[in-house]
Input
Amino acid sequence: MGLLDRFRKFERPDPPERVTVEAIGWVRNDVGKPRPHRWEEVESRIELLPGHAERLRGLDDYSHVLVVFHMDLAADAPEKPSTLHVEGVETGILATRSQLRPNHLGVAAVPLLGVDGTVLHVRGIDAIDGTPVLDLKPYLPRYDSHPDATIPGE
Output
């Protein structure tokens, strides 16, 4: 890309309605079924496919990672609610951390305890054993931390 190309108008094509992704690995832990609470102390391994080894270079220099995962068991849930009752308040599903979301995606910012080859050791990811991992990113406090964030009722 030349210097002049940076200043030319970009015509964005229509965005796709359907997106296809592939797992890069899986969560491994002792949690066998979904649960709403008590994830803080769960230690998990994220076992990546061997082809992703080079992509991990430098990630172990970070204290925390963002993990994007697919809550695959929720895709077969018979109920697809638009709202849930959270602490007695009817709340839109997108205002919760429920797995019953439209695309069943989870995102967790977790401490990175270590990296052994293509295995990451983390704590606190709210994903059960066998959950497909779609992506990893380093946690960057200047972008990912918002100390002035508010939570209803707190």
Q: What stands out?
A: The longest strand covers residues 105-116. The chain has one domain: 18-139. The mean pLDDT is 91. Residues 18-139 form a domain with the Elongation Factor Tu (Ef-tu); domain 3 fold (CATH 2.40.30.70).
